[in-house]
Write a structure and sequence with these properties.
Its EC number is 5.2.1.8. The protein is α+β, with helices and mostly antiparallel strands and about 425 residues long. The chain folds into three domains: about 110 residues, Alpha-Beta Plaits (2-Layer Sandwich); about 100 residues, Chitinase A, domain 3; about 180 residues, Trigger factor, C-terminal domain (Trigger factor, domain 2), CATH 1.10.3120.10. Helix content is about 45%, strand content about 20%. The strands form three sheets. Strands 6, 7, 8, 9 and 10 form a five-stranded antiparallel beta sheet that branches. It has a four-stranded antiparallel beta sheet with strand order 1-2-4-3. A two-stranded parallel sheet has the order 5-11.
Length: about 425
């Protein structure tokens, strides 16, 4: 076998492979003899068909099979011999494929780039520093009470904090328009879910009252025919309801998994969850900065095959996220919607793999278990969650990748300068920018 490798552009390689004619022809002849033992041709008994008949009947088919097998095996041998690391499948084209002549084919492929990660010694990472104060805890408990709140009908004028039940119909230039009518609709007067100005005009109204509400549809309103139009809604107030938060009692505590210990145990449990969420958010913010610095500080070509694979994965994620399921063909989504994110993901994967290799980072069972135990803390039965993840091979692999990624970030963070910034819980808990 003769092999020559040509760099055509960037990561693309053109590998020309020649295989001696004798090797292919001998393999074809051996396959034909094997075929002759079981061939069925009219006028001849099985196993007694003359070879010239076998060649005429099966020669082309057998040669195609043999050549395909030879190309596959010789391609693998060639890239191994030339120490090529292919990214994706090659495009193979036979140049010479005739009996009695050396078989020659060309494999065009992309190879993985050589990635040497630049240290983050010139990078400063901002790390938020915050704690959960009593005021933060009180605010969170108020949010939890709001989540369990019920509305009760009251006989008074509505305030911004109330909810009204209304019938309404909208008109533009005296004409009712499609989609502008409803009956028995519940509307919170500070929800911001209706057209700007609508809710505010119902503050002070009472049950049984009728009111004309004048509004202007926003210029960016989703319905084209309503953009920027002045409208009048004729509204009837059916009822006014005020929000009633539940008392801080045993029944309320049980809703959040606190069976005993009263208000002190409940506050301690909520604070524990807030502290865990704060730590995770800070970790994510730091990680995002490290990842961005890693990508920005290392420029290299990315194999198109890997980008295409990632684009397809992102397409599938998008379909699942928006409920398309099997009824929607993910390939219909334009690749350019995902290309930038795909390139970033592929680069990050290659960079992290390079760091893992260079720093010889490994993950052991104890680290995986510790990671999943942290994840399981927010569940009602943490031990059951831990055992499920640890016994599921696919889940375990995902956990191992997550722990490995964390260790890579820690190793890179050790190279960078870290500036701690004091801030409030609310500012610190704001999530890192979504990808």
């Amino acid at each position: 076998m003769q092999v020559s490798v040509e760099t055509t552009s960037g990561l693309e390689r053109r590998v020309t492979i020649q295989v001696p004619a004798a090797r292919v022809d001998e393999a074809v002849e051996a396959r034909l003899k094997q075929t002759a033992k079981s061939a069925r041709i009219n006028g001849f008994r099985r196993g007694k068909v003359p070879m010239n008949f076998v060649r005429r009947q099966f020669g082309d088919e057998v040669r195609a099979e043999v050549v395909s097998e030879v190309i596959r095996t010789q391609y693998v041998e060639a890239i191994t011999q030339e120490k090529l690391n292919p990214a994706g499948y090659p495009d193979i084209e036979a140049k010479v494929n005739e009996a009695g002549k050396d078989l020659e084919f060309v494999a065009t492929l992309e190879v993985y780039p050589e990635v040497a990660v630049a240290p983050l010694s010139d990078v400063t990472i901002e790390k938020p520093v915050a704690s959960v104060t009593d005021a933060d805890l009180d605010k969170m408990i108020d949010v939890l009470r709001d989540q369990q709140a019920k509305y009760e009908v009251v006989e008074r004028a509505a305030t911004e904090a109330d909810r009204v039940n209304i019938d309404f119909e909208g008109f533009i230039d005296g004409e009712a328009f499609e989609g502008g009518k409803a009956e028995g609709h519940d509307l919170g007067l500070s929800s911001g879910t209706f057209i700007p100005g609508f809710e505010a005009q119902l503050v002070g109204t009472s049950a049984g009252e009728e009111k004309d509400v004048n509004v202007t549809f926003p210029e960016d309103y989703q319905a084209e025919q309503l953009k920027g139009k002045d409208a009048v809604f004729k509204v009837k107030i059916n009822s006014v309801s005020e929000k009633k938060q539940p008392e801080l009692n045993e029944d309320f505590f049980k809703l959040y998994g606190v069976e005993e210990g009263g208000v002190e145990a409940f506050r301690a449990d909520v604070k524990k969850n807030m502290t865990r969420e704060l730590a995770q958010t800070v970790k994510n913010k730091v990680k995002e900065q490290v990842v961005n610095a890693l990508i920005a500080g290392n420029e290299f070509d990315v194999p198109k095959a890997l980008i295409d694979n990632e684009v397809n994965a992102l397409r599938q994620q998008a379909v699942q996220q928006f409920g398309g399921g099997q009824q929607f063909d993910a390939s219909m989504l334009p690749a350019e919607l995902f290309s930038e994110q795909a390139i970033k993901r592929v680069k990050l994967g290659l960079l992290m793999a390079s760091v893992v290799e260079a720093k010889e980072i490994k993950v052991d069972d104890a680290e995986i278990r510790a990671y999943v135990e942290t994840l399981a803390e927010s569940y009602q039965d943490p031990q059951q969650v831990v055992e499920y993840y640890m016994s599921n091979q696919q889940m375990r692999q995902q956990l191992e990748s997550a722990v490995l990624e964390e260790k890579v970030v820690e190793a890179l963070l050790a190279e960078a300068a870290v500036a701690e910034t004091e801030m409030s819980y609310d500012d610190a808990i704001k999530p890192a920018t979504a990808e």
